[in-house]
From TrEMBL:
Signal peptide: 1-19
UniProt key word DNA damage: no
Record protein name field: Outer membrane lipoprotein-sorting protein
Domain of life: Bacteria
Keywords per UniProt: Lipoprotein, Signal
């Protein structure tokens, strides 16, 4: 009986480990990541839906992003954010003001510039569901409990394309990002640099 209990516990632990680092999920994630790695730079349009049942939140906004490596230009909610890989410039057209801060990859938000490789560092992953249309639902669980979110759910189609991802925050907020279009583009590094000469009389607030 004692041996049976030990064997049962060993099997349970083994199944837990496999569920945390599911090889099927890894295969899907690697295929998706490798597909996007072949694209040097791209432009995409997306929508973001924020819901929180307890707070009565249900908001949707749309935006556009251009990405090249760690660099991106994000145009959303009346702001245009330039990340040149070193600094982040947040431009508010309404007040003609740009705020500059140092880019810290460790503290950066989850965006279309980093979501494709997110699983490679500090995450457990599992294939939650495979739908009849070929969509695979992958769930990522951050190993660190210091994150503001406790789960990310990705929908990856049969062509290994990321269709959407959902971020579940500990506050109850749920962010659903849907990728509406994705277009490879040949973008120069200068595209991701905020040029003050192109914005006459812009007020610069530098926090670097």
């Amino acid at each position: 009986m004692k041996k049976l209990i030990i064997a049962s516990l060993t099997l349970t632990l083994l199944l837990q480990v496999q569920a945390q680092y599911d090889p099927e999920a890894l295969t899907v994630l690697d295929a998706m990541s490798n597909k996007y790695k072949k694209v040097k730079s791209f432009k995409a349009s997306f929508s973001q839906k924020l819901t929180n049942e307890s707070a009565g939140l249900d908001e949707t906004i749309s935006g556009d992003i251009a990405v090249k490596g760690d660099m991106y230009v994000l145009d959303v909610a009346g702001q245009k954010i330039f990340n040149d890989g070193t600094d982040i410039y947040t431009f508010n057209a309404e007040v003609n003001e740009v705020t500059i801060s140092t880019y810290d990859p460790e503290e950066s938000e989850i965006t279309l510039s980093n979501v494709y490789d997110l699983y490679k560092n500090g995450f457990k992953y599992a294939l939650a569901e495979e739908k009849s249309n070929g969509d695979r639902l992958i769930e990522l669980d951050p190993e660190s409990r210091d994150k503001s979110y406790f789960k990310i759910r990705m929908t990856i189609n049969a062509k290994d394309e990321l269709k959407s991802f959902t971020v579940f925050e500990r506050t109850g907020n749920k962010y659903v990002y849907s990728i509406n279009s994705f277009t490879p583009a040949n973008l120069a590094d200068s595209y991701f640099t905020f040029d003050t000469s192109e914005y006459p009389n812009v007020e610069v607030i530098d926090f670097r």
